[in-house]
Amino acid sequence: MSGSVNRPVRRRTFVLATAAAGSATLAGPLAPRADAAGFGYTDDGSNYVINTGANLVFKVSKTNGDLTSLVYRGTEYQGYGGKNSHIESGLGTSTVTISQSGTTILVSVAYGTLKHYYAARSGENNVYMWTNKADTSVSATRYILRVKAGLFLNDEPDSYTYAPTTIEASDVFAKSDGQTRSKHYAKLRVMDYAYIGWTTGSVGLYIVRSNHEKASGGPFYRSLLRHQSADGGGLYEILYYGENQTESERFGLQGPYVIAFTDGGAPSSSLFPGTLTTSWADSLGISGYVSAGGRGRVAGVGISGRDTSYAYTVGLANSAAQYWGAARSSDGYFSIAGVLPGTYTLTVFKGELAVYTGSVTVTAGATTALNTITVPSSNDPANASAIWRIGSWDGTPSGFKNAALMTYAHPSDVRAAAWTGNVVIGSGTETSAFPCYLWKDVNSGIVVYFRLTAAQAAAAHTLRIGVTTAYANGRPQVVVNDTWTSAVPSPPTQPSTRSLTVGSYRGNNHTFTYSVPASAWLTDTSAYNTLKIYVASGSGTTSYLSAGMAIDAIDLLA
Fold this sequence. Notes:
By secondary structure, this protein is an all-beta fold.
């Protein structure tokens, strides 16, 4: 949808999109069951009609597996613009079958090598879904739940109902007040949320995400989660999206993820990834399904060498699956359960910066116990002695100018501070005054002013610039005191698609180092040395789509 029109707000609504457990609702499998007397399914000729025996009736097309109707308490929620809800942008002619096993109904959709499943449980207002993608014959993997206009209205970053001016591509918009909106502006990393959706106060509609074991990008990945426009709303489960990807695509069964209706509260935490149990699905014949008994667990007694002012995350990844878990702040203990058997790279992240890697093997039905992991001092760049430092070595642009805003706004947003402006070391505002992003066409050549003592000026020093991602091969070239110019460094591997303008700084963390000779420094200790940082690249277009990069930290080592 590339455009929209203004519509008055007809109903006050509230937005919930956090991972925190909500109050008890009727959404979870452990909640009190409604009258299930109507549980069952029928065939209306075009669709399978499933009645959960609670307050939910939904239909699945017998032709292509689309979700064609979603009626909750007598109100139709599904669809807008003549479009249904479905995997991808809709499948072609598929083989669609239905079966009932006790208190569970399963609809199976087969389209070439892709298989998709819908399940209903007696007395629940939920639709459980799995998707098994075997290869690249389908370009991306997402499920979009399309919701009728006017049922849930909001004016949040991921809404563009009230933003009629297109400012980038066909998916970033500006309101008349200069604030920007886009379906990309979700703010949240995958690890930050368990569900996404809306509530009116009396009805809540959500997608509870899966554990993303077959997704790509790790715990810090950001992608579109929902949108709201004049046409209607959309909720997404993104399992693989070809934007700002740092990993190869993984294949196999992903799920379950859940469409959940509630009485207005948050979904039950019993549906959350890591909490949801599906032993009832063990014998349904879902392709690629692995029960809890066929999975293992990794537990570590602690992590030493941490900087306790930062949160640490432990990730597991191989070509087949990915998992993660938070390390306990007191001692670094971690536990990651529900892991498919195999050998994984174990990575310890300080913030979002990898500071340790190892290997771990997981076996079915067992716990792999790890002794204390020690992070070598040299693995954390913050441990190096520096003459001065801008920012913190944590793998993010946190603390830099506009950094917080950029996860939910376009760089042109009226709320953004000026992207230009130079920085003085010792001012106390070094980090907050330095822009989180640099672009060749916007603020290349920013100047950092700093003094050196006589002893410091008499020696060569290493300058480091850490980046979290880059667009169009943007990388820093530096000039010291207009007399010494660095070589143009080679570009590291980074995602090839948009990032900085669609709410994400997450790419591949990389540190550029420059050996600055003593001859480059000023000998007058009262004078300011100047460091000019330019963005070098022949790629990109103009303005905020010119070559650019996101900054992690900058320092001059002692």
